[in-house]
Design goal:
The protein is α+β, with helices and mostly antiparallel strands. The chain contains eleven helices and seven strands. The strands form two sheets. Strands 1-2-3-5-4 form a five-stranded mixed sheet, covered by helices on one side. The chain is elongated and about 145 Å long. 16% of the residues are buried.
Length: 373
Amino acid sequence: MKRILYSLVMIYTLIGVMLDKNKEFMSTFVVIMLTLLILIIIKERFLNRTLFLFINYIFIIVLVFYYPLLLSKLLAIVLIDIIYQKQYKLLIVLSSFIIYLNYQNIQFELLFFYLLVGLLSFNLIENLDKKQFYLNLIDNERRIRYELEHAKRQLLQNNKEIERLTEIKERNRIARNIHDNIGHDIAGVLFQLQAADKLFYKNQEKSNSIINLCINKLGDSLKIIRETVYNIKPCIELNDNIFKDIIQKFVYCPINFHIDGDISTLSPVIIEVMVTNLKEVLTNGAKHSGATQIEIKIEVTKTFVRFYYHDNGKGCLKIDEGLGLSGIKERINSVNGMINIDGQNGFSIITVIPTRKINIFNKGGIKDEDCDN
């Protein structure tokens, strides 16, 4: 836009010189315009600095001073630069020079031309400022989004690390409890039973006394084992009822629900992911689908668990991932699963989560092991 204003000023000046029909001045004017054009190109591309700007200003003012009638329009170039560079104090100097040139013969057409160029320049700089403001706003928004995504990834990583450390801590606690209590008691019982075996034919009464003592100690050890197992066992039974309770509370439309396999064989982490995802898809279905029928299938095998959701709603050709769908994907990725979403012919989601992993380092060949999830 700025270069367009330069071109308009130079064309308007050229038209004025041609209308004057001063043939002797035409050759000089061509040299002046070429020189000015070179200075402007250098200023715009290579030396857009304050010192070179002043040199450009002085060159134009000198030209106007010697040829005021023909080249006074070139002062509009100085006006454009002053406004563009926001050097508003120089407007006073430029205005004084313009008044000096028009002191004896006021040219209203020329003053109107300066006013028009000034307004266009102010509009240009205002648009550039707005553009820069919005660009900065977009950059800041992008930076904040990247920081949030990084913080989110870091939080997920920290949560996984906390889960791992908590699991290790719980394993150590159980191992220490078994070692400090049950291990010593069973070792003592073993020693006493060996002694009772040796005394069985020599002193049967003492041997029976030792056996009775071992029975009592084994009873205490069994009690400790039961308490340990009770503390490990979750308060809520991990079975089909978790999913059935959620579906029974859903009253938006009928649901055809089917489970194939034993849910209790899944780890608590996988069940938690599936329960949360089930709540999410049902909520999204009630909000957006407009469905009259929903079908949900859960298939549990030795190696994977498959979750299938489909409704007969309006669907969508272009799927916009909001917080709900992105949350489902993140939870599936956290347990190394796969997900497929389809918005045609209603809306469907299929997730597959591995429940076992292959360990190639076992002796005797390849063997499946339970996942740590």
